[in-house]
Amino acid sequence: MKYNCKYCKFTWEGFPDTFDKVLTHEKTHKKGKTHGDM
Fold first, then answer.
1. Exposed e or buried b for every residue in 5-36, given b needs 16+ CB within 10 A?
2. Among residues 3, 4, 1, 10, which one has the least CA distance to residue 28?
């Protein structure tokens, strides 16, 4: 599996059992940080 964050340069590649790293990363964007391209 691959994941590229659309808000920054974070990328992840691995197995579904480590996908929680992606979910944890996405939470960093939901803490009131604004992005013009949302």
1. eeeeeeeeeeeeeeeeebeebeeebeeeeeee
2. 10
**pLDDT band at 37; cut points 50, 70, 90:** very low
* % of the chain exceeding 90 in pLDDT: 63
Distance CA 17, CA 21 (A): 9
How far apart CA 8 and CA 14 sit, in angstroms, is 19
Q: Where are the domains of the chain?
A: 1-30
